[in-house]
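Q: Structure tokens for this one, please.
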Amino acid sequence: MTFSTTTDIDHMRAALALARRGLGQTWPNPSVGCVLVAGGRVVGRGWTAKGGRPHAETRALAMAGEAARGATAYVTLEPCSHRGKTGPCADALIAAGVSRVVVSLEDPDPRVSGRGLQRLSRAGVEVCLGICAEAAAEINAGFFQRVLKGRPLVTWKVASSLDGRIATHTGESKWITGPAARDAGHRLRAENDAILVGSATAVVDNPELTCRLPGLSDRSPVRVVIDGHLRLPLTSKLVSTASDLPTWVITREDADPDRFEAYRDCGVTVIPVPLSGGGRIDLGAAMAELGQRGLTRILVEGGAHLAAALLRADLVDRVAWFRAPLLLGGDALPAAVSFGIDQLAQAPRFTRLSVADMAGDLFEFFTRE
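A: Here is the predicted structure, written as tokens:
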């Protein structure tokens, strides 16, 4: 471990920017960025490819070629030391002849967890750990949570009035927020592995749940619906496009087997999970199953009953709240229905990480305390 410099921080920030490019695309792997610098010049750049392969280090080394010999590698997460579909990145860095590796964080994956750094050190490579660690941890918070807690990071996205209402009492909701906020919402879709909605939202709104920003249509996430009684029509947009865009339905273990097969024939992945004590789908078990399937980051987009159920189960990790400067009143639909809060001490609390003006709307991003 060695002292870092301002130059180290600058190059690591560039690697972090590369890592952000992969968000929503690399699951079940983390999204990692790598910058190779030799003689004060950047000779290679890379970030984890879609589906997690090839890794950031492999792509950066391929770009650098022989220029990697004697270079410093800036990597946002510990280079892997185990052999999966490709060889260990720690070995690739050693073979390429890099002289120094600067890393933000150790990889919590038990297959790595310090072993990559040890392998580099034993090969005579100078290692520096901890540069821009906080920023790197935020980028891969979903991957860390899946590895350490067995479930994805859950972000609840809300577009509401000032008084926390998401639609009028007649159900009108298009559009509470303006174009800038809606574009930011689509960017969130592109940065998450999956979008989650309840069956009521899926049936009433008949949404596509895709990313519709220019140039980002290929970054549409997995569409996931919680549907205990398999009410989603086979003619819905989600089901009818399931052969083109991954669509998963989470349902009860005792759901109608004929409906199971009908969905599967349409290309939908049906995921049965057990019920909770209240006779509803066990959301904790559902999240664990999604984690088992490799998802690291989930964006929840509706509706009020699903939001309340997730809050009740303490499964909301982040909140992305878009707030429009208008009031809808007490008869309008709330962002979340009641979820059992009798005293302030019981309320889930969040810390605001950022706030931004969206052409008159306000976007606040929170993390669970």
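A few notes: The mean pLDDT is 92. The first strand starts at residue 33 and ends at 38.
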